[in-house]
């Protein structure tokens, strides 16, 4: 039976679940409550660098809870801090219970809303950062970016871009995405999310379900569409979204405005579809954060549904924040639409409160009134600016990529004499919104304009004229650094003109700049024409060196080997061009690489590279291993146990288990590039861990470590079996089970038979205080005459160790032996009426010594973890009841020790379901794999 309205009233009036002041004072009517709730579900902006009556009205009278700022709002860091502070003050004085969300696009590269060359640093685009090959650098840049925008009061970054360029050449997203490899995109995006979050700023992944392969119909009213099937999306485009959600630190997801047309789905606007938001994003991918719709001021949406209908559809679909960018009349229409949706019964109170709680939770982690009303502003920015400038220069220098350098034309300081002329040919491009060129253009147009019409006319003219100005400083910088003559002119869609031909005839070397030539085909045609002309002139004995520089998409001439010298910068910000100049001159040797699959194809030739593998030495390598683990933590999802792992996690000092560990290291810097841990006990040789610095993958470090580890194990006397994964230490009970099987595939390629693995999981009850035992379990145990006791020490342990040895590997026996001697641990025994031992399990506190060897037991963020480890029960008719009984006793013991959550570690595949029925959820999954030694000789 449906609930009556009165049953929802307490919920409707209790809007504060996150320790905020009560929203609903006694006597406040439901209409006002609705208005406040509606305001919290909208995110809006406006044009202008000052507060307008319209935006003030939205905050004061319509309770608008979130603001989006763009480059049109922001003149400088100081003005931004003042503007944001004023917005928050208006909200505070209007009685808002919590501060405004202030969101900003600050992706770096060409997409930055805030520009201030004195206080805000420019960093490379997402693809440029990936070109550095360093997820750690991605983390540092994200943290620096978030720290800067946070200083001026921004609390949400609309990023990172999680899209995969599955059709890289013709997509407008370009360098805003990491590249075309889903796993590489996941790696860098998670590193960026961690950087944003560690700086205290909320994150918003985009653009779900993907802008990486859109089909454009031609008309401005037609929506770009996704034509891939959900199956195709699942193994490519959706991988970074899934991994970012799994990482657990993504606060919001931006849902795109594209259409989807395939056999299983026909959607005109993704952000208006419950199939996309509720079904795909929420139910299938498990996202519980805030869903933000694409801006509903799109003409295609307005023409088809109207803003009122579209806004209601967006909320119905599952969006929590509906975006309306700037048109005040449209914004008021959206508010009216939501009110009508509630009055018509289309939008329920439960639906509004679901969104409200998500938005309030997001606000609780990224802002407070103390923080919102007192942004540190210039005092902090001036303090951190020198460090961030150094980071910016380092990042841009490391991103510059020389794809080909035929005839060794680079550096120019060695291939071009000072007296020889150099020609620079650059396209006409729009200045980046946040750049010195745009700032200069705006200042000039405002100074000249005496009326609104004049202002508009000057801006239009300035946009055209500034196309030449974008690369003017590049030409001046090249001329300065080489102390030689430079000729510089632009080229357009008019093609090769006589002026170009004359200059080419004069010059000894020509640099052509392209910016997205695959989408601006005149650039491609012009470049090929010049290349052909240079080839012909070289045939007559003239020196005509040609260098092509792609300053946006690296795909312009990546595969065209007729362009013999090809350089990529991944954006054309002033900082990128400064690094380019230094690279061309030879101030440093560019080390960047092409993104995604192109990097991998280039590295195939390096796969046979042999790396020196050395024995691990604690004193020498301990710090390097600690740093390597930190790097892996920043670039991985929580299903990999790096966060609480330390170098000591791998060293057992157990006389019954021989161990030997190996490293690949830089002997000059003592940095570790990779680590492998091996163990040998009772005839079994085990690889307990093998991992490589993310920035050093795909160059055979892992293979070299694996080869050395296998050689060491096969030399052991009496070896009977080889194994990947072990319970003690339980850092990696097996090969981490990833979504696309890439890790298992790697072990396949180095000789392991992974067809029939033993799936092992770590499971968890997150809220132990709210847990209750399954109904009837206690009574079933009593009827079966099963009793339990808890033992410590080795005095009464012989029967326990014998049972474990008979039904698990020797390393599990050593795990039990260690636990029995550890003060914070004990073993629960299950017995029948005849006192026969039926099963065992280890119980421990997370703060004990065992947690250093089993990271999932280690407390994080001050929580109190209780452990239930390695339940052992021989197969019988009572197996299910015994396993659940042991887990039940373990949970009771954890609760008695005041643990806040309970972790069940080393759970075999066939028992997952019965523990799930008790309220445990899978936290991490691994595949233990075994081989016979003769298969690896």
Automatic annotation (TrEMBL):
Any one Gene Ontology biological process term? carbohydrate metabolic process
Q: Cite the SUPFAM superfamilies for this sequence.
A: (Trans)glycosidases, Acyl-CoA N-acyltransferases (Nat)
Residue ranges occupied by any Glycoside hydrolase family 3 N-terminal domain in the UniProt entry: 36-361
One GO MF term on file is: hydrolase activity, hydrolyzing O-glycosyl compounds
* Short name of any one Pfam family annotated for the protein: Glyco_hydro_3
Q: Matching InterPro entries, A to Z?
A: Acyl_CoA_acyltransferase, GH, Glyco_hydro_3_C_sf, Glyco_hydro_3_N, Glyco_hydro_3_N_sf, NagZ_Beta-hexosaminidase
Q: From which domain of life does this come? A: Eukaryota
Q: Which UniProt keywords apply?
A: Glycoprotein, Glycosidase, Hydrolase
Gene3D superfamilies, per this entry?
A: Glycoside hydrolase family 3 C-terminal domain, Glycoside hydrolase, family 3, N-terminal domain
Q: Which family does it belong to?
A: Belongs to the glycosyl hydrolase 3 family.
Name recorded for this polypeptide = Uu.00g128500.m01.CDS01
Q: Source species, please?
A: Anthostomella pinea
